[in-house]
Amino acid sequence: MNFEAVLAGLPDAVIAVDSDLRIIFWNSAAEVLTERSARRAEGRYIKEVFSPDASVVRRLGETLATGESRSEAESVIERADGRRVPVSIITAPLCGRDGQVEAAVVVLRDLSRIHQLEAEVRRGETLAAAGRMAVGLAHEVRNPLGAIRGAVQLLGREIGPDSRLREYTDVLLTEVDRVNRIIEMLLDLARPIQLRAVPLNLHQLLERVTLLNEEGARERGVTMIRRYDPSLPPILGDEDRLLQVFHNLVRNALDAMGRGGRLTLSTRVSLNPLFGKMDLGAGQRSMVEAQVTDEGTGIPAGVRARIFDPFFTTKDKGLGLGLSICHRILEEHRGAIQVESAEGRGTSVTCFLPLAK
Q1: 3-state DSSP assignment of residue 303
Q2: Which long-range contacts (CB under 8 A, 24 or more apart) does 149-155 make?
Q3: CA quadruple 312, 314, 316, 317: dihedral positive or negative?
Q4: What range defines the domain where residue 173 resides?
Q5: For residue 219, how many other CB atoms are within 10 A of its CB?
Q6: Which of 63, 105, 110, 237 could form a disulfide with 16 if both were Cys (CB 3.0 to 4.6 A apart)?
Q7: Domain count, the chain
Q8: 125-134: per-residue pLDDT in tens?
Q9: Which of 110, 129, 154 is a domain's end point?
């Protein structure tokens, strides 16, 4: 058996170094994790590839010195582009026939997928709690609101259409209707969403969204760019609900950009290792990615973990329910939503949707 081929095919990154900490093996998973090719890594010292004070360098040095394994449940490595990736670390010595340590190997497991799944679970729990609160709140608020609306309508008839007080009754009715709309949005977090899932052409759906937002983009001087995969298969989804999702995402992107820039809509069959294949009860299936990317201000790092929380918003106006509802709709589709952002450079929101059988 070719053991090097076995190591090369492992899903975890495997890196081996000799007694001088020079890299002698670098599998394909290590290339993906670090975004550095084996050709450029092998033959170099490990501290030339990673920072000299990085945990992976220290642990390999300790293993070579002591002949003992080392491990860290969670650490970080820095990719070639400077991004930091959470990983677990396990090292082990490699001994010669005389029992002396001749080399060491480290196994790095990417924890970002696990962190994303944990975040998905937390979001679901938060939205479920908000939904339970919304049901109780709606019942308690709607009845008095209905009474107020009826009383204001009667008052409007009494004072007549020409009274200067009619302006005030119109304001009251408008505000009562606004509160009712807020309650409806809250209930969207609580009600079981009845999907009318049918095979859909995702590109046609996105074109409807761009048509609805074309004028708003033109007013802001924003160019809308399409990067569609022409071979994209149909998705399985509820057209009205998905229009709601993408209309919300495009509107958010336009708001973030202010004046000028590019807003890009792109699609492809999913290559994401976390959401690319999901068990939908009939075995694992590929997904479709639909991405909305803007060149706006980006989301501050300190609030990114809260963007799906109900009532959280970075805008001057708005209820902060848009992304929460998008998350809920995609969850009901057995899909997912992922946000990546860099301050001053823009935001990418990726939706993962199931393929039609």
Answers
A1: helix
A2: 149/173, 149/176, 149/177, 152/176
A3: negative
A4: 115-188
A5: 10
A6: 105
A7: 3
A8: 776 676 667 6
A9: 110
Total-model pTM:
0.59
- Read off the pLDDT of residues 62-100 as tens digits, 9 standing for 90 and up: 999 999 999 999 898 888 777 888 999 999 999 888 888
Q: Is residue 298 within 8 Å of residue 348, measured between CB atoms? A: no
- Domain shared by 142 and 252, yes or no: no
Co-location of 148 and 275 in the same domain: no
Q: Is 235 a domain residue?
A: yes
* Whether residue 105 is found in the same domain as residue 122: no
Contact between 145 and 180 under an 8 Å Cβ cutoff? The reply is: yes
How far apart, in whole angstroms, are the C-alpha atoms of residue 255 and residue 314?
11
Whether 216 and 335 share a structural domain: yes
The answer as to whether 193 is a domain residue is no
Q: 149: which 2 tokens?
A: 């609306």
